Amino acid sequence: MADIRLCAFDQVPDGGALGFEATLRGQATALIAVRRGTQVWVYRNRCPHFSIPLNYQPGLFSTYQTRLLMCAHHGAMFRFEDGHCIDGPCEGASLDSVPVYEQDGVLWLAEVHNAPEQVHP
Ligand code: FES
């Protein structure tokens, strides 16, 4: 197995979010990356309220002041840095974190969290 290339670091808008799919443990999985400056965090794109994607429309995510990601369905607000819900119907719950690292301008998923299949940005 090898680490999996997710996307170019700069594809994640500073203060915003980028959705994409990757194969995690053999299953196609919707992910979302959020970025603040040189830091990026990746989560499964699944709201803990109803276990549905955080967005209504493909590729369209709502962020607030470079620090919060909002679920489009009932407005739950999640912190960029830990995916913790600080307001909304699932307050206290968290998004599922997917550990990644940046190297040479590329965002990578470590092999331990993935299967060696391809990524679909
Ligand atoms: S499904 Fe996300 S807040 Fe309800």
What would you note in describing this structure?
The chain is mainly β. The protein has a single domain, classed as Rieske [2Fe-2S] iron-sulphur domain (Rieske Iron-sulfur Protein, 3-layer Sandwich). The protein contains no helices and 10 strands. It has strands spanning about 5-10, 15-25, 25-35, 40-45, 60-65, 70, 75-80, 85, 100-105, 105-110. A 4-stranded antiparallel beta sheet has the order 5-6-7-8, with no helix packed on it. β9 and β10 form a beta hairpin. The protein is globular. FE2/S2 (inorganic) cluster binds near residues 50 and 90.
Q: Within the CATH hierarchy, at the fold level, what is the topology?
A: Rieske Iron-sulfur Protein
CATH class descriptor name: Mainly Beta
What is the total number of structural domains?
1
Strand order in the largest sheet: 5-6-7-8
Strand content: 35-45%
Question: How helix-rich are the residues, as a percent range?
Answer: under 10%
The termini sit apart by 20 Å
* Topology pattern, helix = H, strand = E: EEEEEEEEEE
What binds here, in terms of ligands, is: FE2/S2 (inorganic) cluster
| Structural shape | globular
- What's the Cα radius of gyration? 13 Å
How many E-type strands? Answer: 10
Mean pLDDT: 91
| CATH architectural group | 3-layer Sandwich
Query: Mind summarizing the main beta sheet?
Result: 4 strands, antiparallel
In CATH, the homologous superfamily goes by the name: Rieske [2Fe-2S] iron-sulphur domain
Which runs of at least 5 residues are low in confidence (pLDDT < 50)?
none
- Helix/strand class: mainly beta
Please work out how many helical segments DSSP would assign.
Answer: 0
